[in-house]
Write a structure and sequence with these properties.
alpha/beta, 11 helices, 6-stranded mixed beta sheet, metal-binding, Metallophosphoesterase 1, metal ion binding, manganese, Purple Acid Phosphatase, chain A, domain 2, 5-stranded mixed beta sheet
């Protein structure tokens, strides 16, 4: 009888330790689940589709069917085998995958545009590395049939102009069904896809083909926007397209001197804003920019490449939005654009993703609390605990 009671007493500390250990595991698991999963739902849930000005003049049923809901993001830069560390890959790709999949589930867009630099090392990738990168991209950016994914080419996908080859361009086009000068029309809205890397204007084979397609598409769009009673022999045999001013989608921004006029929390850092942009490297040349404006007279231009946000007006009336990078490796506060678009109007809203610095702050706070809990459990936070231990040891000696 005495033996059994003493055994029960001895087992109490073990039960307490197991209970405390279980509490620690639950605490750590809760922090991990929140920071690596739930936080994306908490943040993106706050984003709402912007209202189109003309939406108030139509019924709810008509408005919901006539408005195209588009998500625009840029510069995902999936790391490759040359410069990419496995831990960096794991972290960044998990962040982008969770953000993208959460956005699809909560916002349910009709279409998603990625404005180039899908890969970080596409310009160097061997066939095997390219296949592996494409496989990872398809896993991260998988989407339901109800959502269309359109990918634009960037300089990191096929190389800068001096690195670009027909092989690299064809490889990208085969995977993503992309061609420069391609027109996508959805709900009466015209989107023009541009290979801005091929807008160098030096007459290279890829450049000539790309510009020829753009010129032909420009002719179709301009003919489609003419009034029915306007007599023009050049347009008599041209296939008619929806008479909606197009939206240009490309990787390089149109020419601007620098980011000095850009503002906002995700614009370029102050020390970088006044650095002059290099034509055909940071932005398109003045000549190429003017060509695109002349050819298409777009109502909106969406671009990436700079990794920072910017909004500028061309010719005093054509807005261009530079979409910041979607990868936390390039920016502390990534975001994407939510667009409600109709054939005659559009409204844009920026949806910010979790700040990485805040996630790290949560981890640091949780780590400090964890240490305090452990010290308190073992009664190591008692005032003058260490002094008392030293005195007791001294007396024992």
């Amino acid at each position: 009888m005495l033996t059994s009671s003493s055994t029960a007493v001895k087992s109490l500390p073990l039960k307490r330790r197991l209970c405390f250990l279980l509490k620690l595991v639950c605490f750590v698991s809760s922090v991990l689940i929140f920071c690596e999963f739930l936080i994306y739902y908490v943040v993106i849930f706050q984003c709402q589709w912007p209202e189109v000005k003309g939406g108030a003049h139509v019924g709810k049923k008509e408005s919901s069917t006539s408005i195209l809901k588009a998500i625009i993001l840029a510069d995902t830069h999936l790391l490759g085998e040359i410069k990419g560390h496995w831990l960096d890959k794991l972290r960044r790709e998990w962040q982008m995958e969770r953000s993208f999949q959460t956005a699809l589930w909560l916002l349910q867009p009709d279409i998603v545009f990625i404005l180039g630099d899908v890969f970080d090392e596409g310009k160097w990738s061997s066939p095997q590395a390219w296949t592996d990168d494409v496989r990872r991209f398809r896993k991260m950016f998988k989407h339901p049939v109800s959502t269309e994914l359109v990918v634009i080419v960037g300089n990191h996908d096929i190389g800068f102009h001096y690195e670009m080859t027909t092989y690299k361009v064809n490889r990208f086009e085969k995977v993503f069904n992309f061609t420069s000068g391609k027109l996508i029309t959805r709900k009466g809205i015209n989107f023009v896809l541009v290979n801005s890397v091929a807008m160098d204007g030096d007459g290279c084979a890829v450049c000539r083909t790309s510009e020829a397609k753009l010129v032909a598409l420009s002719h179709k769009l301009n003919c489609s926007q003419q009034k029915p009673n306007h007599s023009n022999k050049r347009c008599s045999d041209v296939e008619k397209l929806p008479a909606s001013e197009p939206i240009l989608l490309q990787h390089y921004p149109l020419y601007r001197k620098s980011d000095a006029e850009c503002s906002g929390e995700d614009s370029a850092p102050p020390e970088e804003k006044n650095i002059p942009f290099k034509e055909k490297y940071d932005v398109l040349s003045q000549e190429a920019s003017q060509k695109l404006i002349w050819w298409f007279h777009p109502r909106l231009i969406l671009s990436g490449h700079t990794h920072s946000a910017c909004e500028v007006l061309h010719a005093g009336k054509i807005p261009e939005i530079s979409v910041p990078s979607f990868n936390w490796r390039n920016i502390n506060n990534p975001s994407f654009i939510m667009g409600s678009i109709t054939p005659t109007d559009f409204s844009l809203h920026k949806c910010f993703l979790p700040y990485e610095s805040r996630v790290f702050a949560i981890y640091c706070a949780a780590g400090a609390l964890l240490v305090i809990l452990i010290l308190a459990h073992f009664q190591l936070l008692t005032p003058f605990y260490f002094a008392q231990r030293l005195i007791s040891k001294h007396k024992a000696v």
